[in-house]
Sequence to fold (275 residues):
Amino acid sequence: MWFNYIFSRNIKIKISMKNTKNNPKIEFNKIYNESCLETLKKIPDNFIDLVITSPPYNMNLRIRKGEYCSRQIVKEISTKYEGFSDNLPIDEYFEFHSNVLKELLRVSNLVFYVVQVVTGSKRALFKLIGEFNENLKDIIIWDKKTAEPAIQQQVLNRQSELILVFENDYPISRQFRSATFKRGTLNDIWQIDRNRNNKKKEKEKSHGATFPETLISRIIENFSKKGDKIYDPFLGTGTTAIVAKKLKRKYIGSEILKDYCKIASKRLKEVGTLI
Fold:
């Protein structure tokens, strides 16, 4: 095995460059600053053990007079991406998700797809569940304990997100053959605080929708083993990679926003000093 290093604002992260004949292109423990569809081209079939991600919410799309339009009211709080609009027309948003999921199910047997049902996503997400119904293993409700205030009148506050679990191997059954948890120990409603009370810490992450580490830990610890390969196609500021590293898993991440990649690299470096 040999190693390479990447640099970001004088931050050095060691990357394993061990490749096999079956894996000539992809590198472990690396953040790819590109669209996940580009990274996925490098990944061989059935190479990833577990996918955990939360795709863009399409928050900037709303309905006015019965038609979709851009939602300017939340422009300042919506996630902004380079090369990806957060107000895609609903058909384009669905097509994007469909293409991503097809590729994820090509490279991995098990995919945890964390989604929030909002105006700009709900029709596409429900259609997606229909298209991939034969791969839909289960749905977990993530109860964030506190509700996000609705920005419009007569709209329900959003306190939960859906974790859509897709599988190739045995989706007809609710039994996870590769899971590590014992019978009766894991429910389908997970009450996990988003931990947004620490405003300074959230500001340092510079992302409006970061995963709580507890959520990622629960998935990784119960649905993978040490040494497994974890992939997050929408890495953001790196929480999935950080938890994977802490739990002695290999990680691969894709993120199109350069600033997020730099933040993720810095956070990963800090983890390296703690373990």
